[in-house]
Design goal:
This protein is of the alpha+beta class and 496 residues long. 22% of the residues lie in helices and 24% in strands. The chain has 3 domains: 4-121, Immunoglobulin-like, CATH 2.60.40; 158-233, no CATH class; 237-475, von Willebrand factor, type A domain (Rossmann fold, 3-Layer(aba) Sandwich). The protein is built from 13 helices and 23 strands. A hairpin with a 4-residue loop joins strand 14 and strand 15. Keywords: Calcium, Metal-binding, Repeat.
Amino acid sequence: MASIGEFDPLNNIVPATKIEVTVSFILWPSFNSVSFNAVVVLYVQGIGTKEWMEFGRTEVIDNTLNPNFVRKFFLDFFFEEKQNLRFDVYNVDSRSSNISKFDFLGQTFCTLGEIIGSTGGRLEKSLSNEDGTFTICHKTEVVKNTLNPVWQPFTIAVRALCNGDYDRTVKVDVYDWDRDGSHDFIGEFTTSYRDFSRGQNQFNVYEVLNAKKKGKKKKYINSGTVTTGISSEWTFIYIHFSCVSMCVCLCSLTGNPSQPTSLHYMNPYQMNAYAMALKAVGEIIQDYDSDKLFPAYGFGAKLPPDGKISHAFPLSGDNENPNCVGIEGVLEAYFQGLRTVQLYGPTNFSPVINQVARSAQDVTDGSQYFVLLMITDGVISDMVQTKEAVVNAAALPMSIIIVGVGPAKFDAMEELDGDEVRVSSRGRFAERDIVQFVPFRDYMDQSGNQVLSMARLAKDVLAEIPEQLLGFMKTRGIEPRPALSSSELPKLHRHI
């Protein structure tokens, strides 16, 4: 059985986290079978090669129309990559392990980001195995020869405990251990992760009850009590359930798109550098946005009809509604903008950073996080103002990605990327590093493979986003909230 890391040449870092994927299958009434022997095969797609490789298979469930599979797939999750998945469903009517011997029933495609970004972390077509039963999540060590045992602290992922459902029932059984394995049942209690979490910085006390003893003894109260305490450490995945959207893109519109030498040249046979950068990063970010509506702006252009220079204008041409539908909509608006505006300098960053910062300033409760993507081919013309804008934005729920395209020298961009020295302005330092800058030329595949070039860019430029998001949440004491149902999702305005 192959893992992602075994065939993906780009996966050379520790994954952000492990994702547990469980599948079920609901057969439509029109299927001409009373029951079948079901198995689901998961394939993952290699970056650049686009080759589908088998990752694993579920167990075979016999004689059922609606199998709920127990075997899970544990995938390495990389926020900065588009991880394509394919689920193939078969009827196993042969003892052979060769898939070609099975009856193929159908397949479905999605990305790992789509699963994570779905409401409750469940993609309706593939995630659900609720059957009302309990699965063992953890066993403590045995504490011998005492009526008042104290067990060692242990760590368990919220995913493993309740699959991200804070109100799911968690049952705790208590036994008197016997060497021969015939442990005596003392009692049990039920709770939930939400109830557990109320014990942070304090303790919860639960009564351990034995139903049989309670039925036999009128004076029975309980079999004892269990005292619990909890401390939580979040990952990007659980924080994301509160941040129902991430934002946006901007293109620097300078140059002459009618000339083949222009970085904006609209070649009918391949994407230009701007489009490649936008598509590479945007296709990954859009999986985490709930409504896929992206406000998209351009800067550095003369606008019709009077030729006024603007450094933050909607690519859609509609000042009242700058939204584009999906990244494909942003690309369409970008190309349309090239046909209607006159590209012009200078390259000013601060106006758009301040514009997104004003939106981020209104939602500092953890319900939204903004990602501003800026694509430029020139040197920053307002460096002093840009540094001040970055310092101010560092206190807000936002990150800034800058992609430099073309042969220009981007020395000033490195100063904004605060990996080595934190950005400062007027004696104030940014409270956290929120800028990631990369020159696209460093990621271009020498053989001309645009898909591989885009994958390399996205992988590097998005790598810091989860930690930046977590850092903001933790410094503000914002705790993740349970996933909302689709009817409860807030109507949020996004910038891209």
